[in-house]
């Protein structure tokens, strides 16, 4: 890694701020605004979110994805209730135990082949209703695109939403990379959320070009009244909220969210084309902006001397290569060349 | 309130971003940086904080003051321990119960005349050591400047730190407005923290001109190892941390923190001069950047039609008027004229 | 203190099991019963509790008073809500922080002259509804008889219940010594609970002659559905519940609760008569089964060499002397003689 | 089920109190004892536990097994740490989420073939040390005998203890049925706990003939200081503790624990002999006091009209039949006849 400016394939949250978002921040800086969300830009965001997710949608801007997930799940659950999720879900493996530690939530985990739940998989944990010895299943939480780069189709989300509701449960969608999912599906953001009955979305901005901006987007009106309280007691209420809201306005008012996601998805396809036929690389075609190749750990080790990226499964040698809004074709070509070079040795 | 650009006296977190901080954000935007704090600007902040608070100081950037307070107190306390604080402390009255709800902390509260604890006041709650029926007192938490705009002197903090330590307790300083305290005292930031034995500081940036940037600054090395875990499980770990760290670098590398605080303190003095002799206003001289006048509620009501500010005590009619880094002399003059006008009626 | 059998005035929970309760335990021991409350004795208790508290009353037997209080308050509160109580309340001072640590409850405390809240005192903390910066007041919790041995009258409880309800809040009555209160008031148990609108009672058995048996008694039907879950997740669900339930049946089916409480109250009157005129003893007449005399600490120290009892306030020299169901007139006479002897020196 | 006295095979906690334990309760009832554990019978228990588990052992009597487990695990874990356990562990499936909800503990679950962990299975979750995104693995928790009636051998526990310690982790043994394990192994209680490095044991009394008595038995001195606090704040501190302690004294002072467990284990063998060759019953030989046969659900349904027992796995038709200290040969014969009768139809 150089001391100067560099870009890699470790994560989309290694990237900086998209220029349009940075510009928006500076354009709304003058003067005072009421703190804690009673500002005009948060009001503007409200309209933007309704445009994307329908008139019932209510947006609650927060600092980060863990915050959006945990407070939303807390709003959905009474203290004795629980959340069904994939074993690989971010809430289960990558939030330092925050769901359990901040909100007392029990996560009822299901192994999945590809990071995606199905109604049948949900049923492995959605049982014991009315039996107080069991933390009561109340939410199905899915991630789209998933932690394994896969994408739920509209009908797959609908089947899960219908199933959850038939059990008296809610469905939550962790949308840290929801824009990548929509770009992959070629649909609106509402098509696989509002339109198919999702109750709440953690709307991601940061990984797609914001500085740090996420929102809990509540689609089920029953959940709205809890949100301002769980956001505050969950330490996710920004004082100068205008600067979070405006990032999301800049991203979701027009099509910046889509252009950025289409770009990072396309770069992942380019990367896939470049490496799929290299002997020693075992990889499936990306559905969103990440590849999960399996490599000889020695190759991984050598590559990591020049490129930072994460090993995803120590047992299998699976790694993660991820593209972001600022990945260039030259970045891809350069990285492909390095992989080739390493595997030629 | 106008639809256009305006400034008022409601709170220092109604103000925007100081231009130098906004500039710093844009200057470091290019290219990738490792996420979650392993970036070069967070490393730079580490040096800046050591310069301000001494070589043992370790900085953990977080999103907001509630987050800084709660995770720091959690790092100080075992699950059965408790925090002695003023009844008026922000952690007690203005954090939505986050200390109790996120960290299970019991707050052992003491009434104070002016928001300031003393060793004698601490003793009203610091007892019962070894008795498991009582949540065990472990931390004395003070705020400087306080929620009532008062300022602890260096020797007052030292007396509290010595007292806490003599009881086997830690001392935490909520420094949401630490720069205003330092400006008021005419000392360095370390003079009333590191130098007198404070164990940890919640270092405020947001209210003094940042967009949204605070840090838990740990001065007692025994507390360091817990911090990265409580920050993560407390949902306060920023992915693109460089953009939080650089705000604090821009503020604390040179003297921006001091200039901004001196300015807002000075504006509070100007406001005091303008109103202290108006009949119907009962007010004490400000020690930092806020005044707490007592007004006839009818006057308050009239003034609030044109100026947003908070009632601090419904029973007494006490209100809060606060200056910020961007308050101008014209703002003050204009507001004083309005107060005069109202009280002449 | 002797190595043999002794009785003192330290606490009513130093006493053993009333013979009728011990007998009941052994009489229902034969054979199997369904665990976790689906046994015939718990069903029997259900009827007994309805007889005492009205047909809507539902009983949830638990292990101890802290458990009864915390799970009942949790059933009343959403995670962001809070409980108004006297500073001297058992939940605040004597439960090791369990309300905060187990249930995340913030306690909004009010100083009282005698351990008793009033509507006016409640109002000191029951405010800020709808403001997410403040943990939302949802329950008024009172203790009858109080931690200071005082007794709320029927009309005092009614005034508090009406006030709580007018604010959209619940009222909870910690009845660890509810039988002593009823005996003192000369009323039924329902007269100052069900009949005046109390929403839930922590029904005490242990201090009044049980081995270890308390129950959450829910009077407001809206709260019932939560109870089995908070009891289980609060670790208060007994497997062999029949042995807890039968203790409460034995106590509340007839008038054992009343006889025991009348006796301990009467013994406290006898003790009062014996000591009230001793020079050096400052004491008010007991309202229930405890006296809170103020003594010279040296006298206290000497007396404690022969009799175990607790200092209630180190600053004033106040101590607590408590009678129990098994206190005898001879115990009282013997103790009075010792006090006299000590104060003659 | 009859209205009169009956016994079944649903659970060992359907059984009553062993006469020797009931007798002990009544023998120590006279007079006062200091509350909250400072009584002479709790002191006696201290000696009894040291005799069984070695001189370093410290006993903390509690109300129930969930309580013993959760407070012990809390004493072992900092708030950001986690517990590795079998997916089938009682703490994971049968405690209503108490570990997560009371103590914020994340349970890192491993599927097992038979309810038993191995070092290799532990390694599936014991990783990520030092990475704050992962709740930090700190305890390996095993149950002996397990929730599937299997028994860890001495060397199996030792291998797990050694492995846990080599990773800087603790090992906890849920001994709700520890006596059945010891009876099965033919060893002392210390042989597979203290002697092989187990750090803490949840010592079960209730299922083996007590009324309701368990204890956290701490074998690693580093954990002792936390215990009195987590017991109190975990709502597991009994006021009249003498009546819990004496149950455990009666059980563990002599060999009542062993005789009861040998009896229930032997009855399970008798039941196995009676049913193993019945066509339509698929069952393995019991290792402790429970059988887990697989039956046609219709047969189960018919049998449940006369005998209460639990279905253990709805998918496979597996049920649980459990013997207790009071199961008689006639009970077994009667039940075997019923099973035969049902399967003959």
Written overview of the protein:
Chain A is an alpha/beta fold and 345 residues long. Chain A folds into two domains: 19-252, 3-Layer(aba) Sandwich (Aspartate Aminotransferase, domain 2), CATH 3.40.640.10; 256-344, Aspartate Aminotransferase, domain 1 (Alpha-Beta Complex). Helix content of chain A is 39%, strand content 15%. In chain A, the strands form two sheets. The first copy, chain A, has a seven-stranded mixed β-sheet with strand order 1-7-6-5-4-2-3, with helices on both faces. The first copy, chain A, has a three-stranded antiparallel β-sheet with strand order 8-10-9, with helices on one face. In chain A, strand 4 (136-143), helix 7 (154-166) and strand 5 (170-175) form a beta-alpha-beta unit. In chain A, helix 3 crosses helix 9, helix 8 (178-185) packs across helix 11 and helix 11 (256-275) packs parallel to helix 13. Chain A is globular and about 60 Å long. The mean pLDDT of chain A is 96.
Low-confidence stretches of chain A are none
Order of helices and strands of chain A: HHEHEHHEHEHEHEEHHHEHEEH
Considering residues with a beta carbon less than 8 A from a beta carbon on another chain, report the largest interface and each chain's count. Answer: A-B, 54 and 54 residues
How many DSSP E strands of chain A? 10
For the largest sheet of chain A, list the strands in their spatial order: 1-7-6-5-4-2-3
